Structure to design on (780 residues):
């Protein structure tokens, strides 16, 4: 049912705006509103806090369906649900959940602030400081590459309350825009252009002590665990994206004739379709299996890394082929197929680069295969 | 400028027809005899003239083109001063005879120029490529003396500076190029053109157009004829495409509505268009391979140095073994070897430029550094001047050497 709801929303509300949002590099506020109205911004949140109380797999399905139409809208929904909501649900106190989850389910967009100019893959070398002043904290530093930040009201910010402790000082704070969070720069990107990606400055931003999530020094653990889940969300975005491009381009090849027949009938093309479809299916199974493992309380970190790495590769490969199947038309911006290819590239970079995923998987292999 | 130096050293000049079918991408011919010319040369050895051309183009690309690349891409508009600059530098008549204002250089020199331009901007590269390898070459090979006298200097000299365009594809004929439908009706001694061409590179800025039209559809492809025309004969730009990549290179749909073409504007004779197009595209695809090679190199050279300055986990990310293995796979020697085939070069271009983005992480994904542009630009390599599927098809079925290597005919 959630698949059907999201599919309808994506097709009727999002689709007509995709190209314009991409050309303008701007998310249409009515789409953010629509996501809230459809109940897609609190998918796993308990109903007492205004959520749908659904499973993680349901969130994955929603992310996938949105990505079939617009990967920018998909990632916005993904970060909000799998990173922001989940941190609060998993590590928030009852007061914090009661205060923040309803806002996040009904009207306020969330943003997850970990990366900095000098710490991307090496996330825990972060330098944003949180100085204790009385009972409260004062934040100083810069975050970079922050998704949703242009439109967000609620920010999860990882800062170090005690740099002498290294990563053990990293703490998760929740803040609102009006506490003084400044948008220093909005990136101009290759793809997912409608998804805002900004550099944020914190200049003496005061955060009350009740806004510490999970306790002092727990930020490292929170970030690691949440990103392990979050990458299943990205995998879902990638498989949706691949499917979207496939569904757009293949029918065209059965209508476009050259040399007296539909070009899709040529065996060379047909074999390419078969390979691409198989790869999408394999990526989908990896992704769903990782999601189901998590829902069933099984270890899923290795499977999540595999799903994210593989899905991003498949997305890039299939969307690239989809352009070529459409020939010159695929190369113009009119049909929307080239946009899927541009959007796919980020899959190998954010929420853990492909090289980081490979390293994660390799570590599990080493553990499993050595005495 | 190399053009002046050339006129002092005619021994450096080798025309294509004097080289055997096994001629390689580059031949060491400086101070060698005719016999030695037929030996396979090294890919790393070039003549003095070729090295000079490389240096000239590299300087032009770095000093004149580079500062404008991003703006031209964002605006989807070729800066006219760059087109002027190409003419000024003598880069628009490589193989053209000097009596017609050209450099009287080799095909290899053209390839080198296309490659060097693509390292900086594949859009500028393809503009130069189409003008030289398609338009100029058709005139040189198939034009009569009057036509060569009339048109080549317009296309080569700085004074005239006429950009050329090659009009073959149509909405209903891409890969199946010879199913084209533009008609040329004979009216008295002249012809009247009616039809539409699509995906035409350079057409927004061009003055001179080679147009393939059928003078007798009943004869099928045997009626296809090559005409030369100027913009002011009534060629109308119906649409300029908004593209994924090579955005500064204009790609337009053209309409011909009773465009009158005098009989002396037929190139090669009535019904010879099919042969001309086939032969010229076989050469042209090598130009695209050169563009893709330069593109891949440009992306590689932009991204790899960054990985030696960007530190994470306490060291430059380029030092990690995983990264160095990826560099080796995508690296220079490999790319050079496969530059021969357009099909493979386009794959390598896409793969290398794609990796180059990833090596630069988030920074690679922004439009600021210019590395993502190389990836966007690379995709057309698998589509124009013969799709990858078409090359896979022809390379398998036909004489592989003939399709992949430029052969004098």
């Amino acid at each position: 049912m959630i698949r059907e709801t999201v599919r309808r929303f994506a097709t009727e509300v999002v689709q007509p705006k995709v190209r314009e949002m991409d050309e303008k590099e701007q998310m249409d506020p009515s789409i953010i509103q629509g996501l809230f109205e459809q109940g897609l911004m609190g998918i796993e949140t308990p109903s007492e806090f205004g959520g749908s109380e659904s499973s993680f797999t349901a969130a994955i399905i929603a992310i996938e369906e949105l990505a079939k139409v617009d990967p920018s809208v998909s990632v916005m929904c993904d970060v909000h649900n799998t990173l922001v909501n989940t941190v609060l649900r998993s590590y928030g106190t009852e007061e914090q959940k009661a205060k923040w989850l309803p806002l996040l389910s009904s009207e306020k967009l969330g943003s997850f602030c970990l990366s900095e100019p000098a710490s991307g893959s090496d996330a825990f070398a972060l330098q944003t400081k949180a100085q204790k002043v009385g009972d409260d904290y004062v934040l100083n530093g810069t975050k970079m590459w922050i998704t949703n930040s242009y439109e967000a009201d609620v920010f999860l910010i990882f800062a170090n309350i005690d740099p002498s402790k290294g990563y053990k000082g990293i703490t998760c704070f929740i803040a609102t825009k009006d506490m003084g969070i400044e948008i220093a720069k909005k990136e101009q990107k290759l793809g997912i252009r409608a998804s805002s990606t900004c550099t944020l400055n914190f200049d003496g931003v005061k955060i009350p002590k009740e806004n510490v999530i999970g306790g002092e020094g727990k930020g490292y653990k929170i970030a690691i665990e949440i990103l392990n889940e979050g990458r299943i969300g990205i995998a879902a975005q990638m498989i949706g994206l691949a499917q979207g491009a496939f569904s757009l381009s293949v029918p065209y090849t059965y209508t476009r004739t050259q040399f007296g027949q539909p070009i899709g009938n040529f065996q060379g093309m047909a074999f390419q379709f078969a390979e691409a479809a198989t790869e999408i299916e394999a990526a989908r199974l990896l992704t769903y299996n990782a999601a189901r493992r998590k829902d069933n309380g099984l270890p899923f970190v290795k499977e999540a890394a595999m799903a994210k790495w593989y899905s991003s590769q498949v997305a890039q490969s299939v969307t690239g082929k989809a352009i070529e199947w459409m020939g010159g038309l695929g190369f113009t911006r009119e049909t929307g197929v080239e946009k899927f290819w541009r959007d796919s590239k980020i899959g190998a970079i954010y929420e853990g680069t492909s090289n980081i995923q490979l390293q994660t998987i390799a570590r599990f292999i080493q553990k499993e295969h050595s005495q």
User: Anything to note?
Assistant: The domain at 48-162 of chain B is CATH 1.10.540.10 (Butyryl-Coa Dehydrogenase, subunit A; domain 1). The interface with chain A takes residues 169, 173-176, 179, 198-199, 241-245, 311-314, 317, 320, 322-323, 350, 354, 357-358, 361-362, 364-368, 372, 375-376, 379-380, 382-384, 387-389, 392-393 of chain B (CB under 8 Å). Chain B has 16 helices and ten strands.
